[in-house]
Design a protein that fits this description.
The structure is a homodimer.
Chain A (H helix, E strand, L loop, with lengths): L18 E6 L11 E6 L4 E6 L7 H12 L5 E5 L8 H19 L6 E5 L9 H13 L6 H7 L8 E9 L2 E9 L14 E5 L8 H10 L16 E6 L14 H23 L7 E9 L2 H13 L1 H8 L6 H8 L12 E4 L2 E5 L2 E2 L5 H8 L3 E7 L5 E8 L3 H9 L3
Parallel strand pairs in A: 4-5, 8-9, 10-14
Antiparallel strand pairs in A: 1-2, 2-4, 3-9, 6-7, 7-8, 10-15, 11-12, 11-14, 12-13
Helix pairs in contact in A: 1-2, 2-3, 5-6, 7-9
GO molecular function, one term (chains A, B): L-glutamate N-acetyltransferase activity
InterPro entries (chains A, B): Arg_biosynth_ArgJ, ArgJ-like_dom_sf, ArgJ_beta_C
EC number (chains A, B): 2.3.1.35, 2.3.1.1
Amino acid sequence: MPVNLQAPVPEQLHPVAGVRLGIAEAGVRKAHRKDLVVIELAEGSAVAGVFTQNRYCAAPVQVCREHLAVGTAVRALVINTGNANAGTGADGLARARRTAAALAAQVGVQPQQVLPFSTGVIMETLPVERIEAGLPAALADLSATNWGRAAEGIMTTDTLPKAASRQVQIGGKTVTVTGISKGAGMIRPNMATMLGFVATDAVIAPALLQPLVKAAADASFNRITIDGDTSTNDSFVLIATRQAGHAEITALDSAEGQALQAAVFAVAQQLAQAIVRDGEGATKFITVQIEGGRTEAECQLAAYAIAHSPLVKTAFFASDPNLGRILAAVGYAGIADLDQTRIEMFLDDVHVVTQGGRNPAYREEDGQRVMKQAEITVRVHLGRGAASATVWTCDLSHDYVSINADYRS
Amino acid sequence: MPVNLQAPVPEQLHPVAGVRLGIAEAGVRKAHRKDLVVIELAEGSAVAGVFTQNRYCAAPVQVCREHLAVGTAVRALVINTGNANAGTGADGLARARRTAAALAAQVGVQPQQVLPFSTGVIMETLPVERIEAGLPAALADLSATNWGRAAEGIMTTDTLPKAASRQVQIGGKTVTVTGISKGAGMIRPNMATMLGFVATDAVIAPALLQPLVKAAADASFNRITIDGDTSTNDSFVLIATRQAGHAEITALDSAEGQALQAAVFAVAQQLAQAIVRDGEGATKFITVQIEGGRTEAECQLAAYAIAHSPLVKTAFFASDPNLGRILAAVGYAGIADLDQTRIEMFLDDVHVVTQGGRNPAYREEDGQRVMKQAEITVRVHLGRGAASATVWTCDLSHDYVSINADYRS
């Protein structure tokens, strides 16, 4: 039951010059399921990515890091669902390399020019021969207008595909930013999330791509949580085909750089929020906004304490303004010298807590009214400084338990 | 549905010379419910406590800290359920003080000689007049054999009372250690848990009581988690009435000190584990044992990452050996230079992971067999050193969601 999320309309997903996508049914785990996606990039494209900080990172993540470190021009990405190829040791690493090599051979590039991605069950052997067998069909399907179908092709427990697109004028040219993402559980990206792919035809200096993807991740995928579980496979990749025809962007803080960054942030945030809206079992979309902190880091501590608390999340599920649970989470967030008498709390427009205690003017029915909404903003003011942080999350429902108790069966 | 937990048998709860307990129905939140407990201590008793590290600590916790800091001899404790008196600001503090003063007046001691405790809903006004009105009945009920009824009197969402008792020979005398605890949700004590009370008649130098209660908490209540939510009211109190008649214990590392410590640890661990066994919605009791770490702190990081992961906890609920979720949790626990190729994992006697990958000898049916048990030990070897840590937790079930979505209604 996704929260205010619709399937993307294919016609509104603008093609990015230099990017073609192909989808196939490879039967990685189950038959008759789009589970293999190839993204082909034109010569001259630049690619940067950020990956999970989970020390148990998956084999394909390790191969991606290696290939990006080599510095060769990436020409293709291959993504399978149904199997994460994580917790699979040296054999898993060999299978990830074999996947990249197989696609490289079929498109006529070096293995280092291919990035492999996997998502699905952890600790099972990747059936690489099925992926190899599926590649010709995916390549035959390549098209610039396949963004919507590719979004479907990377889904696992997602109930809807996730895609976003923006166009912006830079140097008199129309620049496109289009992306897809997936994910609904094991979501607390610590660097980026499994999986986000955003492409633009902007002409940007390749050296700027890595700072841009990092900044975009920090403003989007690194600000969402569903269950606090950081995946082994989180990957967020930004592609610039550099075909839009305007003068090269050589600084992110130039007017053109800022215009591009705004478009990339908007696409990344929409994709990240789509993951929360489609969170496993989600019935509410919650924005947690912490203000008045000394540092952004301590605001994040408080925001994540609220966003991860099973007690807070079940109260949202129940539409129960049991707001003391939010205060308790702020209290144990790890801000050592927090003064509870300075805390103010708002639920949307309702002023619930003042000077650390219940606001005398607060009426339960006002809290109840807000809690019944599908979208709720919790705003906590720490009264210590000027820093702030925002995190997006969802509630914890019976369906979350059902989905994760049944996932493999 | 508590996991292998029976109600304590009153006759097996040995009275502690110098301690009497009285229980009453004060109607704090609901009528016809034992919700008020008074514990009276004989002159010469020593008391030490550890309290929640939640910065949003409740008013009674603040009052307890003040009264213990004054150093006056504590002569009585008063505990109410139904209302936590947390998130209640200056008014809540005044009401906690008034509770202590009311009991002090009725037993003829100074207010500073009374410790107040509250547990229940957060952010609601404590009906102190109902507690005052209930005190005479609680005092009329005082008896040395009331430990079992007092355990019932401090329950909230607990389904069973929790009590434990041990006797040990010290200096030719029988020394008794008896205690009670409560708690089923908002359980991730960061210092001690809401609420644990352990009393002994051991003759122990009062200065040793604080290090002993701290050590006991670290070996028991500070090693359990149900939902990762650290309560605003956690309190663990150790009382020594010093009436057992043996020579005074003046060092914890003496033979007598070690004998007493072992008995206190045993009672505290049984009480702490009882809280997990009665965890909200619990169907499994899980021991998470991390070995081979460089430091105890990093072992705890890994243990809590596993014990808090909703994905791991739902897999236990489903009896599904989806063990990659445990590896993922170890990976994101925050051990910066963890080498995944050195990880070994066991589920009871079943060797699941070797060198970071699936053990070739592992068979799914063996994992399945263990996962179906009501008590499971997860053992992870990090391959980095000789430190270890153990944490006790339970699974995450539909009933946890139901209980916490309905708690206030």
